[in-house]
Amino acid sequence: MAKAVKRAFVCNECGADYPRWQGQCTACHAWNTITEVRIASTPAAARNERFSGYAGDSGVSKVQKLSEISLEALPRFSTGFKELDLVLGGGMVPGSAILIGGSPGAGKSTLLLQTLCKLAVGMKTLYVTGEESLQQVAMRAHRLGLPTDELNMLSETSIEQICLTASQEKPRVMVIDSIQVMHMADVQSSPGSVAQVRESAAYLTRFAKTQGVAIIMVGHVTKDGTLAGPKVLEHCIDCSIMLDGDSDSRFRTLRSHKNRFGAVNELGVFAMTEQGLREVSNPSAIFLSRGEEMTPGSSVMVVWEGTRPLLVEIQALVDHSMMSNPRRVAVGLEQNRLAILLAVLHRHGGLQMADQDVFVNVVGGVKVSETSADLALMLAMVSSLRDRTLPKDLVVFGEVGLAGEIRPVPSGQERITEAAKHGFRRAIVPQANVPKKAPENMQIFGVKKLADALAILEEL
């Protein structure tokens, strides 16, 4: 039976669809970005034959009760990296579609090559490369000292051919590196365009669900740090994770932005070495690498990342401004939040910084978005303003309201326990977060208002 060809007009910038061609896209207002796309609709019989095994031998879907669906058929399996398992929600789920993005040189291909070499020892895997030759991948694996005897490789950019080969090889895990260079024959546009990325990702996701293959797709990022391609790319996949890291730092952070099988905002930390990426079992030790001599303007806070606490050092520098409009610079924190805390500190703490430049930085490049860092930030600014050093064994966390009240934060007990494990012996926390039984050899100060915290700071 001949394929029925459908025509659509799609904007290459935003992915908007139109019934006919026009010069300007009314969605993103870009000119000359609408191109014709021809989509061949495959007959139902051909689709069932192509993806046989989805709903039995007949290939016909049937209605089932939710209680009748067995969960034993989808057991998670480990990737070989505990940090990666944590970000994925406890391991990889068969039939899941995972998208990993990151800036060039962050280590996406290196991490996936290490993962598949480990998994290939106990299961069948397939690494599909479209950007590099097989010799280049082999050279990297040899340089990293990875076991390469069991890993299957394929150099291909056609989605139809990749799925046909995968249906014959039947791997349990397949990597697509990268989705921006893949193409489908039925889509009349160049690889990397909105239409090609959208149709390729949808085809691979459907193949993963029907065949029970866990597919990991590598995605490029734009200059502003977002994933390249249409937004529907993140909607159709099950898990979206980002690998971040500065070029001058050896540490990489892996964070989940979407996960249908676990918690979001989970954080995994890796270190880039000559032997590839290595897990960091104690991330708090990285961000607490302070010197022996303490300086004013430094405090330690406990932030909650995903399902675990993380100790981070925050620094503040308050200096007399030589400008009519003092500067307010925040790195790793929200700029508007800093302005609010300065106003609260003036109104309810009696400290005037209107003529001072205020610079705030979170050590280690961590981006803190939760409000539990409010109290630690304010005490760091007070320490810098008064040129008084905070105790080295002091940890602080708590949300500060506009009326100067100290509000409790979630998981207060776990934060205090994590601080005690790293040798902190004193803590300033909201009164509602004071545990009934404090950790051994740890003194906890519960505060209800900002004035209470400033009074305790005078006594320390």
TrEMBL record:
It comes from the Bacteria. Signal peptide: none annotated. Residues 357-460 are annotated as: Lon-protease-like. ATP binds at G102, S103, P104, G105, A106, G107, K108, S109. InterPro entries: AAA+_ATPase, DNA_repair_RadA, P-loop_NTPase, RecA_ATP-bd, Ribosomal_Su5_D2-typ_SF, Ribsml_uS5_D2-typ_fold_subgr, Rubredoxin_2. GO terms for biological process: proteolysis; recombinational repair. Gene3D superfamilies: 3.30.230.10, P-loop containing nucleotide triphosphate hydrolases (3.40.50.300). A motif (RadA KNRFG motif) lies at residues 258-262. Plays a role in repairing double-strand DNA breaks, probably involving stabilizing or processing branched DNA or blocked replication forks. Belongs to the RecA family. RadA subfamily. The middle region has homology to RecA with ATPase motifs including the RadA KNRFG motif, while the C-terminus is homologous to Lon protease. This is DNA repair protein RadA.
